[in-house]
Amino acid sequence: PTPLLIHLKLPKNTGMLPYINSNDVKTLIEQDYSIKIDKIVRIVIEGKQYIKAEASIVNSLDFKDDVSKGDLWGKENYSDWSNKLTPNELADVNDYMRGG
């Protein structure tokens, strides 16, 4: 297997292990953050191949209690992509979103 290196960018003013109180340490992943892969490249270090994933820590998206917020987010982030779909592709996406 090829080893994986992760270059992780953190949000400003956060650390990977922030203290909640004096007896408890939580990682950002445990605090409703997610890892978003920005770029993947193959690199060579001292003659050995690695896969390098450049990633960011982002706030998790959770729309289970607010469908309209999720719909708005999808339209804001995917309108360019969805405008390029064929009618059949768009029908398939809409069918999937309705649970078909």
TrEMBL record:
UniProt xrefs under Gene3D superfamilies: Toxin ADP-ribosyltransferase, Chain A, domain 1 (3.90.176.10)
Alphabetical list of SUPFAM superfamilies matching this protein: ADP-ribosylation
Protein name: Iota toxin component A
UniProt source species: Clostridium perfringens
